[in-house]
Amino acid sequence: MITGSPPQSGFAAMAIELIVSNYDKSLAFWTGPMGFTVCYTRPAMKFAYLEHPDGAQMMFYERDGDWETGLLEAPFGRGVVLQIGVSNIDAAYAALVAAGIPLYVELRERWRHWGDREGCQREFLVQDPDGYLAMVNQKLAVREINR
Questions:
Q1: What is the pLDDT of residue 58?
Q2: What's CA 8's distance to the chain center, in Å?
Q3: C-alpha angle 73/76/81, rounded to 5°?
Q4: What is the pLDDT of residues 98-140, one digit of tens each?
Q5: d(Cα 143, Cα 116) in Å, to the nearest integer?
Q6: Would you put residue 115 in left (φ > 0), alpha (ψ -120 to 50) or beta?
Q7: How confident is the model at residue 147 (pLDDT cuts 50, 70, 90)?
Q8: Rg (CA), the chain
């Protein structure tokens, strides 16, 4: 049985799908302080498709032995950083702090090269219940690089 409907903004061309150890814990984290909403679920599979108000989409399902290409142990997702762009970084940050979620990297501002220009964003990093690392960010400015 499937409950819900497709994402409001349509399906993204690419969306991550995470294997999680505890469906309920992950659902509470991602739909609580992280601000995602459930588009649809497959309860028998412990699967959810989520969407953030700012457009990010993701899926996850509780570990069942399928699609595990190697040893899977905590923290999951080693070598992967999920970037989630938001329109209000202060609200996103406050929601996690209020929920008592420890941050991996505190809120900061960074300039980085973006091809032929530099971009500035405010960002923080947080780990979900399985250790997946998420960088929540808000783009602030872009400037040309003086060469």
A1: 96
A2: 18
A3: 155
A4: 999 999 999 999 999 988 899 999 999 999 999 999 999 999 9
A5: 9
A6: left
A7: low
A8: 16
pTM of the model: 0.87
Q: Which helix (H) or strand (E) holds 94?
A: helix 89-98
For residues 61 and 19, is the Cβ–Cβ distance under 8 A? yes
Question: Using CB atoms within 10 A of its CB, is residue 10 exposed (0-12), middle (13-18) or buried (19+)?
Answer: exposed
Side chain identity, residue 36? F
Find where tokens 């923080």 sit.
124
Nearest in space to 132 (alpha carbons), one of 34, 14, 13: 34
- Token digits for 126? 């947080």
Residue pair 125/103 in contact (Cβ under 8 Å)? The answer is yes
